[in-house]
Amino acid sequence: MENGFRSFHPYVQICYYLFIGSLLMYFNHPIFLTTALILLIFVNLSHDSGKALKKWIVILILMSLIIILLNPFLVSRGTTILFYFRGKQVTLEAIIYGITMALFIVNILMMFVSFNVILNGNRFLYIFSKFLPRTAFLIMMSIRFVPLFKRRLDEISDVHHIRGMSMAVGSIKNRMKNGMLRLQIVLTWSLEEAVHTADSMKARGYGLGKKTSYIPYYMKKQDWAWLVTLCLLFALCIAGGTLGYGKLIIYPKLGTLHFFLIDWIVFGCMMILFSFPLWVEGRERLRWKF
User: Fold this and answer.
1) What are the mean pLDDT values of the chain's consecutive 10-residue runs (290 residues total)?
2) Which of 12, 147, 179, 243 has the CB geometry, 3.0–4.6 Å to 8, for a possible disulfide?
3) 119, β-bridge pairs
4) pTM of this prediction?
5) Angle between helices 92-118 and 10-26 (to 10 degrees)
6) Which of 135, 119, 143 is CA-nearest to residue 9?
7) Nearest Cα to 28, choosing from 105, 82, 111?
């Protein structure tokens, strides 16, 4: 029995990720993006205590540092010159833009980490199979084969290690031979299973009739209520952004970081939308305790 954010209908979940992804690309204010980053960290922690996020922490930190440090020295746009490095000007605008880009990329990747945890294969197929049945199925099969290839390659490597066929020691010729043998085995194994899967699907009549879902999902009252709420919050954010609020002018001259009243309203709507899973998980825990 699923509870919390996982208990909602897949349409509500996909709308949430579409909305926050759109807003991350729509707003570029550092305060907006920094707050969104903090909320997405807590959202990932609420899913699985951060197990999926821990695998990406080092990569995200290194990538952010590289973008922030390199951008000011590669891009000389801007009017606020801080200093010169080897005859090239380093501007405040380039530094702010690097920070903004790093926040944007990290937020997007963290969103997809959460997406991968919540929207599993059945939910993904349920959402897209009615509109793009073959495309959705191919995407799911492709995503499935990446960890499957790695798992099989590890099994083959363990067997070869027991038999003394290592890729770490020996001459280059023998190591290349052992590596090609492993690749040949894993490809043959995967192709053989693909043929079995195709025969099984054909025997079960796949594609002959109307597509049905193995697990039925039904829109409940709370699903409709939250879906309408998310749509209203998203519409308010887009309306505010259309008027220029929630955005920072970086080039050619850095604009003001000051927040006006409508900026705060848009900021509040965006943060409520981003924290939707936290509201749901918090409500579930309060019900469980009290």
Assistant:
1) 75 91 90 92 87 85 88 80 79 86 92 84 74 70 70 82 74 80 82 77 68 69 90 93 84 80 91 90 72
2) 12
3) none
4) 0.76
5) 170
6) 119
7) 105
